[in-house]
Design goal:
five-stranded mixed sheet; metal ion binding; single chain; Inositol_monophosphatase_CS; 33% helix; alpha+beta; 8 helices
Length: 281
């Protein structure tokens, strides 16, 4: 447990392994036992047929809320399901206290469908600045971590996003059509040009991991829920990547961003995607 005189940096140096343990245990206890075994009564809709929530989401978030709050007394947990129940919870991201930003199952639709493309996302932030993140894909047994100024790692191996190969179409994951308005679709359609190979995204967290690994060149997302982006944005940045909103400013987890925004393997790619996206305005 953190002492009263410890800084966040000291907390991370001493307790990052405890955070990792909590995430793995949440997945082992609440998520994986339900993978490919969900009953109909364990799956509900929130905003519509594509916006799903399961008992695994709720129970894993409850588990992480209890453990993370104990590890870092005085911190606040902002989880996707807690915000769905009480939108005012989201305001803690803008406060002065340390905030854990949690998406218990990112890629719930994939989870419900029995696909391994889902993950648990946890980020630690303060004053709107991302300090550390964890991206755990339990069905694939992959854990990616990032610490501000300390690099990004996948299963202990340093991640470097690198640069796209010259002469090859840029591979870009975009907001899925099922979750976008007609106006958002028109903006994202500006990427349907020579030299760009867009496709709908799956789990946002795993798309960010793909960018950090150099397997995907960029993302283009049109929503700003912090639990979907916080962990991945720090992962990409610490792997050497870059991110920009259409206004040319960095994405802020506190909100109020000009959308859409991109995260890319390098600054030149981020600027290229941003320039194309501004063509719709």
């Amino acid at each position: 447990m953190i002492g009263h005189t410890e800084t966040i940096e000291e907390f991370l140096a001493q307790h990052a392994a405890d955070v990792e343990k909590a995430i793995r245990e949440a997945a082992a206890t609440e998520i994986m036992p339900r993978f490919r075994t969900l009953a109909a009564h364990e799956v509900d809709q929130k905003a519509g047929p594509h916006d799903l929530v399961t008992d695994a989401d709720r129970l894993a978030e409850r588990y992480l809320t209890e453990v993370l709050g104990t590890l870092l007394p005085g911190s606040v947990v902002v989880g996707e399901e807690a915000v769905h129940a009480d939108p005012d919870v989201y305001e803690a991201i803008q406060g002065d206290t340390p905030v854990w930003i949690v998406d218990p199952v990112d890629g719930t639709r994939q989870f419900v469908g029995g696909d391994t493309g889902f993950c648990t996302l946890v980020a630690l932030a303060r004053h709107g600045e991302l300090l550390a993140s964890w991206t755990y894909a339990p069905a694939r047994d992959q854990l990616a971590t990032a610490v501000r100024g300390g690099g990004a790692h996948l299963d202990g191996v340093r991640l470097r996003a690198g640069t796209p190969d010259a002469g090859r179409d840029l591979r870009v994951a975009t907001s899925h059509p099922d979750y976008t308005t007609d106006a958002q679709k028109r903006v994202l359609h500006t990427l349907s040009v020579d030299g760009i190979a867009p496709r709908p995204c799956g789990s946002a967290g795993l798309e960010y991991l793909a960018v950090a690994r150099g397997e995907l060149d960029a993302t283009a997302f049109s929503w700003e829920a912090a639990w979907d982006h916080a962990a991945g944005l720090l992962l990409v940045e610490e792997a050497g990547g870059a991110q920009l909103t259409v206004s040319g400013e960095p994405f802020r987890i506190t909100g109020g961003n000009a959308l859409p925004f991109t995260a890319a393997r390098d600054a030149a790619t981020a600027e290229r995607i941003r320039t194309l996206l501004t063509g719709a305005y």
